[in-house]
Design brief:
This protein has a domain at 33-105: Orthogonal Bundle (DNA polymerase, domain 1). It contains five helices and no strands. It has helices at residues 33-50, 54-57, 60-69, 74-78, 85-105.
C-alpha cells in the first residue's frame, strides 16, 4: 500500500445528531423533543425571512400543542390554540409538513 500498488477504500459514516432540548423553556414530559426542536427551527427560519420575532409566527404554547395533538390536516391544525384563519392559511401546510416528516421518520 505504501508503494501505491494497492488501494484502500474508507467509508464515511454519517454524523448523527443527538436530539437534545435547545430551549430554556421547560417542557411537559409528554413533548417529543425532536419534534419540538424541528418546529422551533422552522418557526425561526420563517421569522428571519419575514424580519419578525419568532413569537409573531406562533407562541411556544402553540408549538407545544402541535407536539401533543399531532394534527394531520388543516382542519385539525385550525383547532390548535393560537392558530386563526390567517395563520392557518399562511403557515398551516408548512408546519403540517414538519409534523408529517417527523412522524414518517419516527
Amino acid at each position: 500500500m505504501l508503494k501505491g500498488e494497492q488501494q484502500i477504500q474508507l467509508r464515511r459514516d454519517p454524523k448523527r445528531k443527538a436530539t437534545k432540548q435547545q430551549t430554556r423553556t421547560s417542557l411537559p414530559l409528554d413533548i417529543d423533543v425532536a419534534l419540538w426542536e424541528s418546529l422551533r427551527e422552522r418557526r425561526r427560519e420563517l421569522a428571519e425571512e419575514q424580519g419578525v420575532p419568532p413569537y409573531v409566527i406562533f407562541h411556544d404554547r402553540t408549538l407545544q400543542e402541535m407536539c401533543t395533538t399531532l394534527p394531520q390536516n388543516l382542519a385539525q391544525f385550525g383547532r390548535i390554540t393560537g392558530v386563526g384563519e390567517r395563520k392557518l392559511d399562511k403557515y398551516g401546510d408548512i408546519f403540517l409538513d414538519v409534523i408529517n416528516a417527523h412522524l414518517s421518520v419516527s
